Amino acid sequence: MIEWQLKGRELANCNCDYGCPCQFNALPTQGNCEAAVGYHFEEGNFGDVRLDGVRAAGVYYWPGPVHGGNGKMQLIVDEGASDEQRDALVKILSGEETEPMMTVWSVYSAMCPTKLKPLSRPIELEIDVEGRTGRIVVPDVFEMTAEPIRNPVTGNIHRARIDLPHGFEYQLAEMGSATTKATGEIKLDLQNSYGQFAEIHLSNNGVVRTAA
Fold first, then answer.
1. What is the spatial distance between Cα 178 and Cα 51, in angstroms, rounded to a whole number?
2. In Å, how far are 23, 66, 89, 123 from 84, measured between CA atoms?
3. 183: left (phi > 0), else alpha (psi -120 to 50), else beta?
4. Using one digit for the tens of pLDDT, what is the confidence trace for 142-153?
5. Number of other CB atoms surrounding residue 70 within 10 Å
6. Quick one: which of 6, 14, 55, 130 has the fewest CB in 10 Å?
7. pLDDT value at position 210?
8. Which positions ≥6 away from 155 have C-beta within 8 Å?
9. Spatial separation of the C-alpha atoms in residues 83 and 72, rounded to whole Å
10. Where would I find the beta strands (DSSP E) of the chain?
11. Which residues pair with 116 in a beta bridge?
12. 3-class secondary structure, 4
C-alpha cells in the first residue's frame, strides 16, 4: 500500500436537514442522499507525489441511505494539478491505497458502483471554517454557497458543531446552511440544507487525530 496523507479544509452540502442524520447513525431526512463537496488541501503527499495546495471536489447521489449502496459519484480535480497529482487524488478519493472503510472516501467509493469519469476543471473555492462561510464554483458541474445557520425568529447567527471522536471524516465540524445547484452528469438542487465546514487530516489509515 502506498502511504499518503492530506490536511486541509472541507465544505460539504447534502440534502438533509441541519445536523444530517448520517452523523448520528440515523436515516437521511429525505430518504435518499445527495451531496456535493469541495476540498483545499494545504499539505499532503501520495508516496513521493506532493499534494500541497491542490483542490478537488465531488458530486454524489444515492437512491436511499449511503449504506444502501447503488450510488453514483463524480470526482473533479483542479485543472492546475499535474498529471501525477491528479492521478494520486483520484486514487485517494476513490478509496484506493486505503485501509477499507477507514476514510469517508473509501466508504463513499464502496457504496458507489457507478463512477463517472473524473474531470479536470478550474475550481474556485473559498472556505472559512470558523466563520462558516464558503463558496465553490466548478464550471458546468456545480456551484455552492454556504453561510451560518440563523435563528428563524430573530435572524441571529446560531452556532452548532459536531464532535466525532471515532469518525472517518473529521474530528470536529462546524454546521452551516448551504445551497447547491449541480448541472453536470449528476444533477442537484439543494436549498438551505445541511452545510458542513471542517478542518480535515486523513491518511491511508484513517483520520489523523490530535491529542485531547
1. 27
2. 33, 30, 9, 18
3. alpha
4. 999 999 999 999
5. 12
6. 130
7. 82
8. none
9. 24
10. 4-14, 33-46, 49-50, 54-62, 72-78, 114-115, 119-121, 124-128, 133-138, 142-147, 149-150, 157-158, 161-163, 172-183, 187-203, 206-207
11. none
12. strand
Alpha carbon 102 to chain centroid, angstroms: 15
Which neighbouring-strand residues pair with 161? Answer: 174
Q: Which three cell numbers stand for residue 82?
A: 499535474
pLDDT greater at residue 4 or residue 210: 4
Backbone phi and psi for residue 60, each to the nearest 5 degrees, phi listed first: -135, 150
- Report the amino acid identity of residue 152: P
**Percentage of the chain surpassing pLDDT 90?**
99
Pairing of strands 149-150, 157-158: antiparallel
Give SS3 for 207.
strand
Residue type, 198: A
CA 177 to chain centre: 15
Q: 10 Å Cβ neighbour count for 19?
A: 15
State the residue for C-alpha cell 458507489: 112
Tell me which residue has cell 467509493. Answer: 109
Q: What percent of the chain has pLDDT over 70?
A: 99
**pTM to 2 decimals?**
0.95
Cell output for 95: 478509496
Tell me what percent of the chain is helix, strand and coil, each rounded to the nearest 5.
10, 50, 40
Tens of pLDDT, residues 108-140: 999 999 999 999 999 999 999 999 999 999 999
Within its chain, how far is the Cα of 151 from the centroid? Answer: 26
Phi first, then psi, for residue 24 (nearest 5°) are -120, 20
The pLDDT score that the predictor gives to residue 211 is 61
CA dist 141 and 198 (Å) reads 22
